């Protein structure tokens, strides 16, 4: 079976109302349809990679290809875990966690998006909290980082409520203009002190070598 060769297919991260897991190809198609319908209001540009500037059909195709690329380029030294987020059995967004040399650095960085129809319900905070539990409690991370544009209020607020601290800025060029992002960092100690929803993880042990970690004996 495919899961014998790619155990990540069995990974599950759950809160009371959400489940995060790698999508099947059919679920990936549903996520592509969700992205095509929009992940932010017209005229906004909340992401440094301007994939949402594409027409709906190209936006959907980009999402599919990006997911396939993440699987195909995965190594224990450089990986990108893209988890589909499900609520009541339907996909509502994507939570990503990436790392390089994780076994040594013990640091992850994250990104995410939620379909426009599902925003404003606390989904973004809950799915990030689930990812952080996987990183800290499941994989033994020491730090988690993220970044958001200075005017992207919602993710900055989520990060603050989850215990992240400012970690400097970055300046990049997007569509010929300089954009400034706030970097944020969450330590294991701050994560342990922060109130968060209950999270359970299953199917992780067979995946540990893919993250560069030794499987539990």
TrEMBL record:
The molecular function GO annotations come to: protein N-terminal-serine acetyltransferase activity; protein-N-terminal-alanine acetyltransferase activity
- Keywords from the named record: Transferase
Q: Which InterPro entries match?
A: Acyl_CoA_acyltransferase, GNAT_dom, Ribosomal_N-acetyltransferase
Q: Which Pfam families match?
A: Acetyltransf_3
| Family annotation (PROSITE patterns) | GNAT
* Residue span, N-acetyltransferase domain: 18-185
Any one GO CC term of the record: cytoplasm
Can you name this protein? RimJ/RimL family protein N-acetyltransferase
